[in-house]
Design a protein that fits this description.
- By secondary structure, the protein is an alpha+beta fold.
- The protein has a single domain, classed as Lipoprotein localisation LolA/LolB/LppX (outer membrane lipoprotein receptor (LolB), chain A).
- The chain is 19% helix and 40% strand.
- It is globular, with a radius of gyration of 21 Å.
- The relative contact order is 0.20.
- About 12% of the residues have low confidence.
Length: 287
């Protein structure tokens, strides 16, 4: 490779990393292993049915949801989890970004990520959201844009997008099925849609396909989850998430530690007040 070509490649990598940095809040919104929710495309082509799928007993969307809830431990196990904390490792274009997440069911969700020595925070509550992202020019805590809050606020609920979906005001539709998978379309009361692929044998969620905003453009995203592990109360948690954003960027999240029902002060979800301006020195004239 010539020096000129090598330099051009390095410039391209730098621009790509800058794009990732500017949009890391969007990426982080897709990275939660607690609530796998994404804004999804309105339609997707249904795969052709096989003879095996045609011969299998037909299941309704609600029956598929019920089997999924049982597969992750059942309603009783999920109901025992009132709060959760997680330690994760995120790989972004060869860079490691340690992350932590805290959630109190129905109250708040907060994720903190150390990216190249910079602390990035995003927080959702039942009333609103806020964030800190110095790399995007927001060094102080600031309110989250409405569209970002609406797309990610379901993360305050433990159990995922299918658990108690009707009570949350969501609707579910069976889009397609074959021998291996079911595809469900979930529409929240805020009209946020997600298409969830469920394994036809285990009834565990395999992936969430959707759209994300990057650089003002809609980008197709796919979050693939795996490595489900049973917690002490019997509730299964996925320990690995692979996120692909339209083939442009990808990242991997590995869960290192999960703690159920830790004591979390709800005050951690409140947006900190910006620091007060420094007082003028004595004798200094005001402008």
């Amino acid at each position: 490779m010539s020096k000129r070509a090598g330099a051009a490649r390095e410039r391209w990598k730098e621009r790509s990393m800058n794009n990732v940095i500017r949009n890391l809040m969007v990426i982080l919104a897709l990275a939660s292993a607690m609530a796998l929710t994404a804004q999804a495309p309105a339609t997707q082509a249904a795969p052709a049915q096989t003879d095996t799928a045609a011969a299998a007993p037909a299941l309704t969307a609600d029956q598929i949801v019920a089997k999924n809830i049982e597969a992750v431990g059942g309603k009783d196990a999920i109901a025992k989890v009132k709060s959760m904390s997680m330690e994760m490792s995120m790989q972004v274009m060869g860079n490691e970004a340690p992350s932590t997440a805290q959630v109190v069911d129905g109250v708040g969700y907060k994720m903190q990520t150390d990216f190249n020595g910079t602390q990035i925070v995003q927080c959702y509550t039942d009333k609103g959201g806020w964030m800190v992202n110095p790399m995007a020019g927001a060094a102080d805590p600031s309110p989250m844009p409405d569209d970002q809050y609406v797309a990610g606020k379901s993360q305050i609920f433990i159990g995922g997008p299918l658990y108690d979906y009707a009570a949350k005001g969501s609707k579910i539709e069976l889009m397609s099925k074959d021998a291996d998978t079911y595809k469900l379309k979930v529409t929240t009361k805020d009209n946020v849609e997600s298409v969830i692929t469920i394994d036809a044998k285990t009834f565990l969620i395999k992936s969430v396909a959707g759209k994300a905003k990057m650089q003002g453009q809609d980008v197709e995203s796919t979050s693939t989850v795996s490595d489900y592990r049973k917690t002490d109360v019997g509730y299964l948690v996925p320990y690995h998430v692979d996120i692909d954003l339209g083939g442009q960027f990808s990242l991997n999240i590995t869960v290192k530690k999960v703690e159920l029902n830790p004591t979390i002060d709800p005050a951690v979800f409140e947006m900190p007040k910006p620091p007060a301006p420094a007082a003028a020195a004595p004798g200094t004239a005001k402008p």
